[in-house]
Amino acid sequence: MKITEKTLELLKSRKAFTDFNGVNRLKIGDNLFVDPKAVIEPYSVFSGNAMSAMGSFSYSWSPLRIDTVIGRYSSIAAGNRIFGAQHPYGRFANSSVTCDRKFVIFSECIKDTGKNGLLAKPISPPPHNDRQ
User: Fold this and answer.
1) How many Å apart are CA 96 and CA 5, to the nearest integer?
2) What is the predicted pLDDT for the residue at 126?
3) What percentage of residues in the chain have a pLDDT greater than 70?
4) Is 16 helix (H, G, I), strand (E, B) or coil?
5) What three-state secondary structure class fits 70?
6) What order do you get walking across the sheet with 44-45 strand by strand?
7) Which H or E element spans position 50?
8) Structure confidence by residue, pLDDT tens digits, 55-108
């Protein structure tokens, strides 16, 4: 689909970001590919021009295929390489949730909830994936 002003507004209202700071890198007229069955939770960041299923507080610096499914608190590095030392290994997750409150997916949640902690609302499980 071609990105329109309405598309950009929808992404912003749903807290689906396309860069670290929340400034939309996608422009009107760009192509965007979205899996129509994908559940995209708020506070997630996508790279590339395809949006797949992704849980809250997850991000990818690598373009993903639209049939990819990423859970919550996942970090996908550029080039799909193993993470470097900047991700803390001794914590409950390697996600930036434990160390980077300036990242838009965390700062927006803190701003929206008024709490200096992360609160993801439970969601219903997605419908059965008939592509398996």
Assistant:
1) 30
2) 59
3) 73
4) strand
5) strand
6) 16-17, 44-45, 59-60, 75-76
7) strand 50-51
8) 999 999 888 888 888 899 898 888 864 444 455 556 556 667 666 777 888 888
Q: Can you give the pLDDT at residue 65? A: 82
Q: Which amino acid is at 61?
A: W
Q: How far is CA 113 from CA 20, 87, 107, 119, in A?
A: 20, 25, 10, 8
Pairing of strands 16-17, 33-34: unpaired
> How far is residue 51's CA from residue 66's CA, in Å, rounded to a whole number?
6
Q: How big is the CA angle at 32 (ends 30 and 37), to the nearest 5 degrees? A: 165
CA distance 29 to 12: 17
pLDDT at 121: 53
CB distance 49 to 67 below 8 Å: no
36, burial (CB in 10 Å: exposed 0-12, middle 13-18, buried 19+): exposed
Provide the β-strand partners of residue 70: 54
